[in-house]
Specification:
The structure is a single chain. This protein has one domain. It starts with a strand and ends in an 8-residue tail after the last helix. It is built from three helices and three strands. Strands 1-2-3 form a three-stranded antiparallel beta sheet. 50% of the residues lie in helices and 13% in strands. Bound molecules: zinc ion. Zinc ion is lined by residues 27, 29, 31-32, 86, 88, 92.
């Protein structure tokens, strides 16, 4: 099964986990983490590649990715935004 995957999504997921290990936000439930991912990914360029059963078939041009500092800055921005206004009631 051929799949399209977004390399940026993998990189952002990693950056978000790093951020959450070092910082406490109002809520870090799955819903809020998904909101943070969505906000971040909407602000960064997508980098799709073709994968077949987990195997990467298309070479990723990693130099085409924005640098780590830019990605982390977007993660922090999104985390603060979601933290300030979570999209679910506080008791969840
Ligand atoms: Zn939450």
């Amino acid at each position: 099964m051929y799949e399209l995957k977004n390399h940026m999504e993998i990189v952002v997921q990693q950056a978000l986990q790093d951020y959450l290990r070092q910082n406490t936000i109002t809520c870090s439930c799955e819903h809020c983490q998904a909101d943070i991912m969505a906000l971040t990914l909407n602000r960064l360029p997508a980098r799709y590649f073709v994968s077949l059963q987990g195997e990467i078939l298309t070479q990723i041009e990693s130099q085409a990715l924005p640098d780590q500092a830019r990605i982390m800055a977007e993660v922090v921005r999104a985390a603060q935004q979601v933290s300030a206004t979570p999209s679910h009631p506080n008791n969840q």
